[in-house]
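Task: complex structure prediction.
Instruction: return structure tokens for all chains below.
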Amino acid sequence: METLMAFTMGFMAAGSVYLLLSHNLVRVLFGLILLSNAANFVIFAAGGMTEGLPPLIRAGAKELTGVYSNPLPQALILTAIVISFGLLAFALVLVYRGYQELGTVDSDRMRLAEPPHPDQDIPEPEEPRRPQVRDAARRVENIREPVGREPAGREPAGSDAS
Amino acid sequence: MSWYLIAPILVPMTTAVLAIMLWNSRAAQRAVSAAGAGLHLVSAILLMAKVWQGGILAGQMGGWPAPFGITLVADHLSAVMVLITGIMGLGVGLYSLSDINEDRERNGFHPLYHVLLTGVTGAFITGDLFNLYVWFEVMLIASFALLALGAEKEQLDGAIKYAAINVVATVMFLIAVGILYGLTGTLNMADLAVRLPQVEQQGLVTTVAVLFMITFGIKSAVFPLFFWLPASYHTPAVAVSAIFAGLLTKVGVYALVRTFTLIFTGDVAYTHTALLVVAGLTMVTGVLGAAAQNEIRRILSFHIISQIGYMVMGLALYTPLGLIGAVFYLVHHIIVKTNLFLVAGVAKRLTGSMELKKIGGLYKASPLLAVLFLIPALSLGGIPPLSGFWAKLVLIRASLEIGSYAIAATAILVGLLTMFSMTKIWGEAFWKPHPGGDARVLSISDLTRTERTLLIGPIVVFAALTVAIGLWTQPFLDLATRASAELLAPAPYIEAVLGPQAGVPGAQHAGAQP
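Output:
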């Protein structure tokens, strides 16, 4: 059983690394899901594999005696599942929103936060970007307004980029 | 059950809940947020006072005895970190009232901000590794949302990178926690400190230690795991990047300090040497990265990385003086770095941009802001008598003491390079004329009165703190000394958590307790 678990975790981890190395953010997300489940298996296996044994205390007894299943790893995994579910749901929405705004799920094309060096050859995004920086004159005119731009328009997803 | 321990976590949590309940009223949210941040600071001061007088404070939640229940514990390091979180939380919270636009407030800035503070405080107070993981996640999910709040294109781009790498880091954390549990059957940090030396497979313990090093390394942005930080920290609203710059990476550093002084001290020669090399490389790469940038917040982001190197260096030296330096540097850095980001935000208000090529003339328009920039900038570079000088001095003395001349030289050199890129901001943003004519630059007196109070007030207070730490160093050094003594001799910590009968290793890291 331990061997089987070890191989399962190994395959999951290897698969997740393969997916994480992808340019495609959706694949990266799947990689993260796979990796977090591999981590749950690690905790489960670390708690000791005891098949078919009770995790409960007998009536009248004060503590677990003899061989028993350790319930704590399962409690830890339960917490971890809930947390990673929340995180991954958020990440999924984030990638989707990024796809709406940036028109791509290719991490190589997402170069707004870190603009590439002019000499570097980066594939152009499919849709023309809005100019990043407004001209200084307009900025100073608008300086009384709250800092930050107006919320970017929500184009319907995937209409022009696929 | 000690309310001193619970209050700093409970107050921001309650504030966040209240702010969510007041979702439709922007004014009420702002009031609750400011009041909550103030109360958080009060509770942090109370905790600090209690720990200063009575020593390490430990509490078992739910009344379960130590290794089974959830432990909250505050020693001097935790208490001072909570205190500084409170100060930053209030200062940046007030700043954000003027900096965050209505759209972002309507989308839940205030609740998220307080959830972030909850997570940070919880991470500082917890005495249990799995709970540390949970607090990391609380902090992380709030930071994701804060980073993406506003949904500008750059922000989404930065947030995606930040989210991806940080999720990987927490999953690695979880795996390391799992293996550690398998080895020892406990996750209580004090209990781990007792039990780990008894584990037979010490090689495996070192492996887990390295796993933790990588996990917390990603969190604290050390070489070579820092690339997410300059990609994301300059994209959100100024208040958000200021609180991130001050607190988030420092939670990683705190976790490194905590685990590598309390738990993983079995193979110091290996782990702490690795940390020392990492620290040196972090300092150098961070400062070189900063020298190549032309946007204020990106320069400052790279500086966070190089400064993290100093703190890790203090930990890696693993001498009393080294740890004093690390603790001192942590506190100094949080104040200074947050302040620099806040000043950058005001500079953006006045000139319209943070690109150094597009702005200028700030000195002429508002000399006050120039002074307020100079104080933290000089402190960051390590000019006496500001706080950064003492922090660097202690660290360099500590490294000379044990003959690590290479790291001492690196620290000095990096300090010089830091000054270089600070003068770059000074020269480009403050001294040279604005490319579009100096008339385009507003002065502080052009801001409305509320804006002035909310934006400049925290900056002045933080600058005063830096100067105060520099001029009256002794009390702060005392505090750092106490914290460092507790870190190097964890017996009182273990005793406070597990009770006096616990098998406390007598010496620093006595291996052979039956």
